[in-house]
Amino acid sequence: MIREAKKSDVQAIYELIIELAIYEREPDAVVATVSDIEENLFGANPVAFCHVAEVDGQIVGIAIWFLNYSTWLGKAGLYLEDLFVKPEFRGQGLGLQLMKTLAKHCFDHGYERFQWWVLDWNEPSIKFYKSIGAEAMDEWTVYRLSGSALKSFAASSTSNF
User: Quick check: is 23 catalytic?
Assistant: First the structure.
C-alpha cells in the first residue's frame, strides 16, 4: 500500500533514511535527528513531504519530496529528494508505485515537472528510471554550497535582509 506519511511514521522514515545513506556509501552523512524529520515533515510549516510504502503494517519504502519552481514554465514542480525501498522488498513494484503516486500528484496539482538526482554509479536505479521514461539531464552540473563554505560566503554578504 502506498500512502501519505503520518506523524506516527517518523521513526520508520528516519530508519529508512539511515539505510539509504548506507546504500549510497555515506553511512556517517546523516546528521538529521528524528525531531528534525518530524518538524520538517509535520511541523507548523512543513518544508518537505513523504509518501510511504507499507507491507503488512511495516513501512518498507519512502519517497521524500518538496516543491520547486520553473521560471521558464511559470509553474511549480515536484523534486524527489529520496526514494528508497528496503532491499528485501525490491522487485515487488513498490518503487514503481511510489513514483506513479508522485506523478499522479504532479498531474492532479498542475505541476509541470517531476525531477530528481541519481548517483552516476547507481546502475539499478538508472535502469529503473529509464524504464519509466525519465530522461537524464546530462548537460546540467549540480553545484552546492554547504558547511563552512556556505557560512563563509554568507558572512561576506553586505545585504541587509
Answer: no
The amino acid at 9: D
Q: Which residue has the cell 539499478?
A: 124
The pTM of the full predicted model, rounded to 2 decimals, is 0.91
C-alpha cell at position 80: 524527489
What is the distance between the alpha carbons of residues 12 and 18, in angstroms, rounded to a whole number? 10
pLDDT (tens, 9 = 90+) of the chain, 161 residues, equals 999 999 999 999 999 999 999 999 998 999 999 999 999 999 999 999 999 999 999 999 999 999 999 999 999 999 999 999 999 999 999 999 999 999 999 999 999 999 999 999 999 999 999 999 999 999 998 898 999 999 999 998 776 65
Question: In sequence order, what DSSP letters do the residues of 76-114 get, joined into one string?
Answer: EEEEEEEEEE-GGGTTSSHHHHHHHHHHHHHHHHT---E
For 8, the 3-state DSSP assignment is helix
Output the domain CATH number for residue 87.
Answer: 3.40.630.30
Number of domains in the chain: 1
- 14, 79, 111, 129: which is the annotated catalytic residue? 129
In a domain, 161, yes or no: no
